[in-house]
Amino acid sequence: MTRVVHTRADLEAARAGRFGDTAVVMTMGALHDGHLALIQAARQAAKTVIVTIFVNPLQFGPTEDFSRYPRTLAEDLKLCEAADVDVVFAPSVEEVYPGGTPMVMVDPGPMGEVLEGAFRPGHFAGVLTVVNKLLNLTGPDVAFFGQKDAQQLALIRRMALDFNLPVEIVGVRTVREPDGLALSSRNRYLSAPERETALALSRALAEGATRPTVPAVLEAAHAVIDEAARAEPPLALDYLALVDPGNFQDLREDYTGNAILALAARVGTTRLIDNVPLTITGEAT
């Protein structure tokens, strides 16, 4: 049976007496199949599984959707029970930040200033700060994060390395709907026509991933995005970049090796991100 706790003291009590490896999955709720894939991976890896459900105000900018972000705790708890989660930690903002906005936060450094960091200033400082806090509170041996948030995953891995955190960070493959759209809690905001336009994100990634060189990847992906920009409703691109997985810097044209093709775009009032890992061979296949 899943135990639900809302305070740090109750979380500590829930963890007491549990032995063996512990895994944590951090979420902001509104759980979907992507989250359940993380939970399933955690369940296979550890004896005890903790899921956190917390909508973190620090990672939302002043014009972003913190107030309207979906909060579906009752439904989320049913899904956690069905997935055999041991403990759900669903704290209030005051419980996580008892002194108000932290005076000391985690600086994401140069990797946090590009792509998502450039379009959402302060976002990754908020993400890394809450992840650091939740890792300290839950004390896991391993933590699972989705590869859909590739830049976030890379930064969390770097934080764990740089801060010598005693936890293994594991990425789990992006889960997609049958039409290719990456699962996201924000997908529910899309109207039917907006969703049709949004499918250009996954199509652009798929087209780019088949190309052998950096220029060819970007040209193929941009061709799909440019067509979607002329659709009704149109897609408005924030960025499309082919980057080094280790530092998220743009790749030179003659680069070969592992890469990440990442993009972010808006359809109507909804902002979506997606990415795909690929290998640049430099040769025609």
Mind sketching the topology for me?
Blueprint: E1 3-5, H1 8-15, E2 22-27, H2 33-45, E3 48-53, H3 73-82, E4 87-89, H4 93-96, H5 116-119, H6 123-138, E5 142-146, H7 150-162, E6 168-172, H8 192-198, H9 200-209, H10 214-229, E7 235-243, E8 257-267, E9 270-280
Parallel strand pairs: 1-4, 2-3, 2-5, 3-4, 5-6
Antiparallel strand pairs: 7-8, 8-9
Helix pairs in contact: 6-7, 9-10
Written overview of the protein:
With 285 residues, this protein is α/β, with parallel strands linked by helices. The protein folds into 2 domains: 3-172, 3-Layer(aba) Sandwich (Rossmann fold); 185-279, 2-Layer Sandwich (Pantoate--beta-alanine Ligase, Chain: A,domain 2), CATH 3.30.1300.10. 35% of the residues lie in helices and 21% in strands. It has helices at residues 8-15, 33-45, 73-82, 93-96, 116-119, 123-138, 150-162, 192-198, 200-209, 214-229, and strands at 3-5, 22-27, 48-53, 87-89, 142-146, 168-172, 235-243, 257-267, 270-280. It has a 6-stranded parallel sheet with strand order 1-4-3-2-5-6, with helices on both faces. It has a 3-stranded antiparallel sheet with strand order 7-8-9. β2 (22-27), α2 and β3 (48-53) form a beta-alpha-beta unit. The longest helix is centred in the middle third of the chain and has 16 residues, at 123-138. It is globular.
Quick synopsis:
The protein is 35% helix and 21% strand. By secondary structure, it is of the alpha/beta class.
- What name goes with the CATH superfamily of the largest domain? HUPs
Strand % is 15-25%
How many structural domains?
2
The run of helices and strands is EHEHEHEHHHEHEHHHEEE
Characterize the largest beta sheet: strand count, sense, and whether it forms a barrel. Answer: 6 strands, parallel
Q: What is the CATH architecture term of the largest domain? A: 3-Layer(aba) Sandwich
Distance between the termini: 52 Å
Radius of gyration: 19 Å
Return the average pLDDT rounded to an integer. Answer: 95
**Helix/sheet category:** alpha/beta
Shape: globular
Number of helical stretches of at least 4 residues = 10
| CATH topology call of the largest domain | Rossmann fold
Which percent range fits the helix content? 25-40%
- Which CATH class of the largest domain? Alpha Beta
